[in-house]
Amino acid sequence: MAGEPQADCLFCKIVKGEVPATVVRETGTTVAFRDINPQAPVHCLVIPKVHYPDAASLAAAEPQIAADVLREAGEVALQENGDKGFRIVFNTGAGAGQTVFHAHAHILGGRGFNWPPG
Fold this sequence. Notes:
The chain is an alpha+beta fold. It has helices at residues 10-16, 55-61, 63-81, and strands at residues 23-26, 30-34, 42-48, 86-89, 105-109.
């Protein structure tokens, strides 16, 4: 059921403490941790503690928690990258590069980024 932990979800296991992660921030509704395959000098993920497969379904079902994820993304970026600028990325669907189907924001910083991405 949407919102409920999924036994086969890597990020649900991180939330429950069953899989280790380098946590940089945690709130009542979110967990932020370093990406194990960083694509920039600063690369953290912010995930909701509730399970939804992607950002769109999270926002539709629980807009306050989606806002919490976005707010924490800004806090993590400030903590990890100061005021140097950052990028927030939500990959939604396999075609967009999503590999873990639990909503999450990528926080990227510490280098310049081109536009368009990809």
